[in-house]
Amino acid sequence: MRKEKEDESRRVREEMRRREQERTKKELESIRIDEAKKYAQSLVDKGILKPNDVDKLETIDTEGLIVIQVAQLEKEKKELSERLRIVAKRVDHVERAYRKEERPLLDKDYEQQQKTDRETHERVQRIRKETARAEHTADVATKERLSRMVADYNAYREVLIAKKAAAFAKKKEAAHKKIEEEKTKRRNAIMKLREEERQRAEKEERLRKEKEAEEARVAAGTFTHFYFLFLVSHTIRTERAAEEERLRAEEEATATAAEAAKREAEEKAAAIRKEREAERAAAMERARLQQQREEEAEARLKARAAEKAAPLRAPVAARAASNSGDNVWRRPGASVPPTPTRAAGTPPPRSQSPAAGAAPPRFGAGGTWREREAAKKAAAASGAAPPARPSPRPGAPATLGREEPQKDEDGFQPAKAVWRPKARS
């Protein structure tokens, strides 16, 4: 039963598919026939087909109609070419006949044309001569009539030229005067502007120099250095004032010169200013080197004083430092102690250069001269060496005033100027 139902459903589906295919085929055929009819009607409208031939083309499709159209066009093209050939031949025959008939008439026409041209030329020349003669007669009469006015014309012309020349000279003088006034105003404005710029530059330079001098004075802390900077600053200001005065005089002298001369003067002033800046930089560099040499000399003096002020208890301190083994250099033969020598037997070596970080005292860091004299007198009264000067500055390594013996009691040579950490509390 179920198989029969499946067969029936399959048959129904196949029947529907077949009907759908037939319907599609009929629609396509109908569309083809309609297109063929439309194309055939267009051929009828163009005159390629006759109206009676449309009913005979039921089995011809669009491609067949196109072939018929192409054949008809070729046929019409051939017929048109043949008609054109016949017409061209007929026109050629007619042209030949015309030329044959007009040949005897050309000589007569040429003679008539020559005669007409000669008469026309003679008439034109006669009219031209008569017109020229009449114009000449009129011009002569006009000249005789106007010659009586030449004297009055020349007199009036001279008067008019004199008036115009006077007015022109007056206007020229006024324009020249106005130009000179404008030049003077412009020159004064430029000079005033340059003077204001110079004063402003001098004021700024003076304030800058004063600020630099004040900073240098505060940083130096010594009268000698301050006086040296003052002299350098005064020299620089004097040179700059003289240079600016000279440049201002040159600018005033060349204010009315041409633009090229003005540019040349500005370039020259710039070169001179650059040279002066280089000289000032060299002077500042020399001052810095001089200050550095003074600082090095003062540091060497402090180092010598510190070496001379080393206490006699240095061997004990050196032995303690050696026993602690804290940052002390030992020789390779440390296992065999050499013969001990006295620490005070040989003087300590002189320092050839100040220690790293040593700098000149700032604002009396080394004490006043009264305090140093009092310390020397107290040391001489007690029979001991004079006390060492204070440390150059808080940031310098505290190695100059440290007790450094030549050798400790065990015969070891301790390192000099060795940094040791502070003992923790």
Automatic annotation (TrEMBL):
GO terms for cellular component: eukaryotic translation initiation factor 3 complex, eIF3e; eukaryotic translation initiation factor 3 complex, eIF3m; multi-eIF complex. Keywords: Coiled coil. One of its GO terms (molecular function) is mRNA binding. Residues 308-321, 354-363, 377-386 have a biased composition (Low complexity). Residues 335-351 have a biased composition (Pro residues). Residues 274-307, 401-410 have a biased composition (Basic and acidic residues). InterPro entries: EIF3A (IPR027512). Signal peptide: none annotated. Residues 1-26, 274-425 are annotated as: Disordered. One of its GO terms (biological process) is translation reinitiation. Residues 70-97, 176-214 form a coiled coil. This is Eukaryotic translation initiation factor 3 subunit A. It comes from Sphagnurus paluster.
